[in-house]
Specification:
Length: 152
């Protein structure tokens, strides 16, 4: 309740939720808040991972869609292997948003995940898609796995 990463309930603007990997946890809290408060603003969740199993609550998200007709879900995988048999969207999750929503001037974006994803999203959405900078809300973090990869 004291953090800055929370849904702005007083806005009528459509919402883009952007999560990379375990950055989904705070996004899940926003979805649960929307359910509890009966918020029905148009919302699109983009959740990205390297492999399909990184979308660890994919089933939970899909189950929420039945009760939240205003919520759309776009899972995105960047490094699927043939054995994953991934048939969904591929590439970088923040770019999938731009492909689908080239004009973000009337939206709010809530982004959570690795700093490289959050920073790239902020820059591209403001510069390329017209998102007002004050409508980009973010919670970036670095995982131990990210730190290990950066050290190699």
């Amino acid at each position: 309740p004291y953090g800055s990463f929370h849904l702005r309930d007083d806005s009528p603007k459509p919402i883009v939720l952007l999560a990379s990997g375990t950055g989904f946890a705070p996004i899940k809290a926003i979805i649960e808040h929307m359910q509890f408060m009966g918020i029905t603003r148009d919302t699109v969740l983009y959740w990205g991972g390297r492999r399909p199993q990184d979308l660890y609550l994919d089933g939970w998200v899909k189950a929420q869609l039945a009760d939240m007709p205003h919520l759309k879900y776009v899972p995105v995988v960047s490094d699927a292997l043939p054995e994953d048999q991934w048939q969904g969207r591929t590439g970088f999750v923040h770019r999938a948003v731009l492909e689908d929503l080239p004009d973000l001037s009337g939206h709010q974006v809530y982004a959570c995940g690795a700093p490289v994803v959050v920073d790239s999203a902020r820059k591209d959405y403001v510069e390329k898609a017209g998102l007002p900078e004050e409508e980009f809300y973010a919670d970036a973090f670095t995982t131990e796995a990210d730190k290990a990869r950066a050290a190699t």
